Every structure is written in C-alpha cells, then in structure tokens.
Amino acid sequence: xxxxxxxxSDVSKNPVTGxxxxxxxxxxxxxxxxxxxxxxxxxxxxxxxxxxxxFFSSSPTTLLAAIAMQTxxxxxxxxxxxxxxxxxxxxxxDYAMLQHLAGGRVDLMLGRxxxxxxxPWFGKDIREGLPLALEHYNLLHRLWREDxxxxxxxxRTPLQGFTAIPRPLxxxxxxxxxxxxxxxxxxxxxxxxxxxxxxxxILAPNFHFKPLVNLYRERFAHYGHGTPEQAIVGLGxxxxxxxxxxxxxxxxxxxxxxxxxxxxxxxxEDFRRSTPLSVGSPQEVIEKTLTFQEGFGxxxxxxxxVDAMGLPLEMALEQVELLGTEVVPVLRREMExxxxxxxxxxxxxxxxxxxxxxxxxPRQPTxxxxxxxxxxxxxxxxxxxxxxxxxYPELV
Length: 396
Known about the structure:
The chain has 396 residues and is an alpha/beta fold. Helix content is 40%, strand content 14%. The strands form 2 sheets. Strands 1, 2, 3, 4, 5, 8, 9, 10, 11 and 12 form a 10-stranded parallel beta sheet that branches. Strands 6-7 form a two-stranded antiparallel ribbon.
C-alpha cells in the first residue's frame, strides 16, 4: 500500500494573515514539502498540471526533476497530466527523460482536465475532449513500447518511422494511472490497458466514485489482467491533522471558511462528515481512511492534499510530519491486516522490471545507433527531406 501527498499547485491567499504567497514562494515550498515527505517515509509526491492562474504548475516534469535530485526514495507522480491538450509525443519524451533522471521513481496520472479555456489555448476543442483522451493515450502507449512507430489518427499529424527519445529507462515505461472523471469511458480505458484507476474525489461526496471503481474492476478482469480484486485503484482525499480533534477543527476552520470553493457554500462540519475530507486527531484520520477500504475494497494508493487553501508552508510541513509519523504507520499495519491475499501492490519500476525480465539484464535501447552517426561515417541527416537536401547538399 502506497501513501503520499498531492498538490493542485494553487496560489491562494492565507485567510488568517491576508497575505498571498508569490509563485516563486509556492514553487520553492512544493520542493520543501516533497523533500519532507521523502524524509518521513511517505511513498508518493504528486503535482498537478495547470496553465492558468491561480496555479503555478505548468511544467510538472521540470518541477519533479528538481525534486528527484533532492530526494532518495519517494515516487514522483502527477495528480494530473493533461492527455488532451498535450502532444503525446512530448509527454512520451518528457516523462521518459524524467524517469531516467529519477532512477525510475516516476509514474503519472492522466486526465482530460476540467478548465475549459485551456483547450483553445493549445489548439484543441473541449467538445472533442473524450476522443482526444482516448486517441492520444493510444499513441502514448505505443510510443513507449515500440522503438519505431508508424501512426495516423484524427488529432495530430501522422508519424512515419518515428522514435521517441529517450527510450524509457530499462525499456520499461512509467506506470500510468487514469484520473477518474464522471464518464465510464476513462474507467474502460484504464481497464483495457491494465493501468491504474485513480478516484480523485476531494470535491465529491463519500463513495461517489464507487460505481466507476467497480466498473473498472469488472472490466479489468474482463480484459484478462487479473481478478477484480487485483485491479489497481488509488484514492484521493484531503487531510488536516492535529493532536486533538478540537485543535484540528479550530486551526483548520479559518482556512476552510476562507476558501472561495468551500467556505461560502458548506459548513466545515457537514463537509467533514459527508466527503473524504479528514480533519481531526491522528486516530480520527486513521478511522476515516479505513472507511475508504471498507467502501471501495482493497486499494493500492492513498494520497492527501495538505497544502491548499492558503495554508502556510510551516503548517503544510507539519501536516506531512504528522501523516508520516503518526497516521501512515498505523494505517500500513491496519490495512495490511485487513487485505485480501488476492490484492496486489501498486506497480513500481522495480516490480515492472522484474515482471518483464526476471533475473535477466534489462534491454538498454540505443536507437541512435540504428540511424547512422559520424563515428561510422554515415550522415546524421540521412533522412533529410529531399527538397531540403537539394537546397543544402552539404547536409548530406
């Protein structure tokens, strides 16, 4: 079972002090939060992708690469990578590069995104969001598994003899999660490929995504990847922990009530009771999280948001510390004792490597060696367009 934290990368006003951090402060803070998560033994740090204010994370791979250089064991992931507005070729290359830099400590969660204006900013039509997601992932899946790809679809130019570089580390692609949205097609897609399915249900009522998780489990088995109990499920949530319930509620209340998303529409007591939000003592957060296992069945990844709503860095770091030292160790024991023997662990680079190669050494692709280089006397421009070659014969 993997436990960790994720961020939506919001730049929000602290409703207690009235101050709003700069983008630079929030970027530096996210690196510090990830480092603390690594130090206290959490398993995953994930960051979102946004291209509009009030968020800062427009380039998750850049941020995660910086974190990779300053951490040792934590898995670096995304709480969404936009499979719709990003070119799958660029995703394939960026995340393979990140995978190399992080020594394999990388996976990613794909999603359609829920910010309408982003689509035209990147030349896409939001009304095509679902077919975009399906087609783009089909291409991404192939780019990571085939050294040379011929491909033609509806939403980007065709590829002929294309090789995405670098190839995935050890020729093993990063594991992919598909972020839950309110359409069964994404659950179907995750199941078809045997990928993970993540219900990021921080804004939804308790167990709102249970029907989609169940559908994913059934279709995972239908496609021959294992039993429904062996499907790879992740859950999102939000937590605020303090030594006592009274302290947690009193400290968190001004941040909740000062949030334009929550405080103007809900009471903290109602939201705490009817959604996955966990606010309380370590024991209360443990008990709330155990209800997720009861409701959704055994699952493989639990992530919490701890830095939203304008919480200052010091408070977010304290949340990471409390989760890592007082909540997660108990949850590991409790959830393990309740798990079915059929349940599998979330894939990691090490487990995917062992599944593909066993004890044999992994393949180390060298795609450039097959294209010619100056060391062998072949032209590096041997595939140059004929018109360009005629205009610039020195290239060939």
